[in-house]
Amino acid sequence: MPLGPLPAAVPPSWYLTLSAILFALGVLGFLLRRNIITVFMSIELMLNAVNLSFVTFSYMLKRADGHIFSFFVMVVAAAEAAVGLAIILTVFKNRQTLEIDEVSTLKN
Amino acid sequence: MQLWLIPILPFLGFLLNGLFGKRLSKPVINIIAVGSVLLSFVWVLKTLNGLGAFSGGLDETYKEHYYTWIQSGTLNISVDFAIVRLTAVMLMVITGVGTLIHIYSVGYMAHEGGYYRFFAYLNLFMFFMLILVLGANFLVLFVGWEGVGLCSYLLIGFYFLEKFATDAGNKAFIVNRIGDFGFVLAIFLVAIHFGSLDFGTVLVQVKNLPVEASAGIFTTISLLLLVGATGKSAQIPLYVWLPDAMAGPTPVSALIHAATMVTAGVYMIARTSQIYLHSPWALDIVAIVGLTTAFVAATIGLAQNDIKKVFAYSTVSQLGYMFVGLGVGAFSAGIFHLMTHAFFKALLFLGAGSVIHACSGEQDMRYMGGLRKYTPITMVTLLCGSLAIAGFPFLSGAASKDLILEAAYEHAPWMYWVGVFTAGMTAFYVFRAFFLTFFGEYKGKHAQPAHHDPDTAHQDTHHHGTPHESPAVMWIPLAILAVLSVVGGFINIPRFLEPLFPLQEGEPARWLEYVAMAAGLGGIALAYLFYVVSPGLPESLANSFKGLHNLIYNKYFVDEFYDATVVEPMVDGSRQLLWRVADVRLIDGAANGIGSTARGIGGILRRAQSGYIRSYAAWVLAGSILAIAYIGFVGLTR
Question: By residue range, what is the domain housing residue B84?
Answer without folding.
Answer: 1-278
